[in-house]
Each structure stands twice: as structure tokens, then as C-alpha cells.
Amino acid sequence: MEQARAHDAYRLAVRVPEQVRASSAPQARGEHTHGEPVELPAPRRTVRRNSVRGQILDALRAALVGGDLAPGEVYSAPVLGERFGVSATPVREAMQQLATEGAVEVVPNRGFRVTERSARELGELAEVRALIEVPVMLRLARTVPAARWCELRPLAEASAVAAAGGDLARYAEADRAFHGAVLALSGNQQLVQVADDLHRRSQWPLVSGPVHGRRADLVADAAEHMALLEALVAKDLAVVQTLVREHFAGAGG
User: Fold this and answer.
1) How far is the CA of 232 from the CAs of 127, 181, 239, 241, in angstroms?
2) For residue 181, which of 192, 170, 197, 168 has the smallest C-alpha distance?
3) Which H helix or E strand runs over 147?
4) How many CA atoms lie within 13 A of 251 on its CB side?
5) Residues 6+ apart with CB under 8 A from 13
6) Phi, psi for residue 75 in degrees, rounded to 5
7) pLDDT (tens digit, 9 = 90+) per residue, 70-128?
8) Dihedral of the CA atoms 13, 18, 19, 22 (nearest 10)?
């Protein structure tokens, strides 16, 4: 059952390139031969491996957000590696990253279990995000020129397009991109990173299913992005505060 579900979830157009094997020649290992200068190997293998890991991580995140990886289920790196057409190593590395993000937990000798999250946990994340982001957005609303807010309109529109298509994974990325761009105007990179981590955690699926269950939920959530921009342009602090709080509490967007 698990393997069948994994197969359906991972019929993605992700064809990971084969890893480059390191040459066993003395020159490739950096050894001297007959007094000739040492030739250091090009770092292709490392770059390629990181690229594979990144592709797998993106695909796994999309599957998590979309609910294709079910909360409570255990998935093994070798099985998922077979579906992606790669070895278990990049899958395991990607899963370790997801474990640090709270999306999965390690099950010794079995694999990784998708974390079971409750509505209460989602509410707690929304509360923390509001405590961090609302004061920042109110400060930005007072100081950032209207023209800068207008520059973020394409990001808000991108989230609306993803919402209209009902694409959970694509909307999740567009949603995070919009919020990240808003907070980046504060000039505080640490703030942006912390807020992004909280935002990503709020997008992992609940036990009962994905956070955004219907296209209508996504469309309404995306519409709040545009409304927020309009309030920021108008420097309407009361509306900004209300919109941000409702946005977090409503769909975790």
C-alpha cells in the first residue's frame, strides 16, 4: 500500500542526473607523477550531488504540502530513491533536512515518519508568526514608500494564479515568496529566516489533510495578499494589522 502510494506521488518529472564517478587516476587524486604539476579535480561531483539533493528536497516538500506523503506513515529512503531513480543517499540527506524542519522524524532501521500535526499546533504557529510579523509590518507601513509596495504586486499575482489552479505546492512557494519579500524590506535577514522557517512549518499537512483543502480556500488566501498590499500603500495601519492576523489564523498562509 505504502509503495503504491509513493509511486503515485512521485511520478514527477524529476529525472536526476547520474553522479559522476571520481577517477582513480593518480592525477585525479592529486598525486605527483614523474614530477609533473598536480592537477586538482574539478568540483563537478560535489556540485552535481548538491543539485540532486536539492531537487529531491524540493520534490519531497511539494509532496508533503500536497498531502501525498501522509502524516503518520513511514517512508524508507531506498524505496523513495527507486521512485526518483536515484540512490538512497540524496533522499536520506533530504529527509534529514526535513527532520530539522519538523516535517518528519527519524524511525531507526525503518526510515522517516511524516509528523502528525494537530490544529492546535497550527494555531500556535499562527500566534507566533503574528507576534513576530505584525509589529514589523506596521513599522514598514509607516516608513516604506508606496512605490516599493507596488513592486511586490507580481508576487501577489503569482500566488493568485497558483491558487486559481488549485496547485497546493506551487501556492505554498508563492505564498512564502510574497511574505518573504515583504519582510525583506525590514533589512533584517535573521528575521526573514526565522519567519520563513515558521511559515514553512505552518504549511505541513495536518492529520486530517492539507491545510488548504479546497481551491476556494487558496483563492481567498491569495486575495488577502493583494488587499494587504493596498492597505500598506494607503498606510492604513488598522487594516494591515487586521488582515495579517486574520491571514495567519485563517489558513496558515
Assistant:
1) 21, 14, 9, 10
2) 192
3) helix 146-150
4) 23
5) none
6) -125, 135
7) 889 999 999 999 988 899 999 999 999 999 988 999 999 899 999 988 888 888 998 99
8) -170
